[in-house]
Amino acid sequence: MSILSYSLFANDKVWLEVEQFDKLGGWVVDAQFIDQMGSSYLLAHGLGEPVQPAVTTVKFPSRGKYHLWVRTKDWAPFPTGPGKFHISIGDKIVPKSFGIDGNDEWHWQYGGEIDIDRSKTEISLIDSNGFEGRVDVLYFTKDKNDIPPSSFDELSTLRQAMNRHPNSPVDVGKFDLVVVGGGLAGVCASIQAARLGLSVALIQNRPVLGGNNSSEIRVPLQGDMDHNLFPKIGNIVRELSTGYKGEAGDEKHYGDDLKLEKVKNEKNISLYLSTHVYDVEKDGKTITAAISRNVITGIKYRFEANYFVDCTGDGTLGYVAGANYKMGRESFEETKEPKAPMFIDSLTLGSTIHWFADEKDTISHFPVCDWAIQFSDDYYLKNTRGAWNWETGFYWNMIDEAEKIRDHKFRVIYGHWSYLKNNKFDEYAKWKLEWMAYNLGKRESRRLVGDVFLTELDIINKVEYEDACVTTKWGIDLHYPNPQNSQYYPGEEFIAIADHDRDFEPYHFPYRCLYSNNIENLFMAGRNISVSHIALGTVRVMNTTGMMGEVVGVAAYLSAKYKCTPREVYQNHLDEFLSMMEN
Question: Does residue 7 belong to any structural domain of this protein?
Answer without folding.
Answer: no
